[in-house]
Amino acid sequence: MLLSRRELTAAAIAPLVAPLGYWLALTVYGFARWLAQHEQSGLAFPSLGELARPLGLILLVGAPVAWVAALAGIPIYLAVRGADRLLDWRRRVTLLIIGTAIGLLVALLMEPGLRGELVSIPFPPWLGAILGAAVVGTFLRLLAR
Questions:
Q1: What is the model's pTM?
Q2: What backbone torsions phi and psi does residue 115 show, to the nearest 5 degrees?
Q3: pLDDT tens-place string over residues 94-103
């Protein structure tokens, strides 16, 4: 078997960090904008439901994209892990760098498609890189348990 049960579980769960992290980044950005503009515009603070509403759409679009990106990373993980199934610090750093690169690539490929006439969804490459590294970090953390 190429992947152990623990590795399969980690590979299924860790990619969900990307859409959750994206939602968190948008929420923090929106909160910062609200802080800067609420006194001038009189905007009320959004309710918990209004804050959570975009999460469903982000998960609907982001989870499959994150899982496909993770599938692309599994052969790389297997090559880096090697037959001894050990992950020393050099291999972990290599995986983090590769995860960062995959996240950056996903953001670069998706960003033009997320710009529309009616609605545009910001997905800067630097955020994709951070989310890619976060997915790999979560994957490695789940393996360490």
A1: 0.87
A2: -105, 115
A3: 999 999 999 9
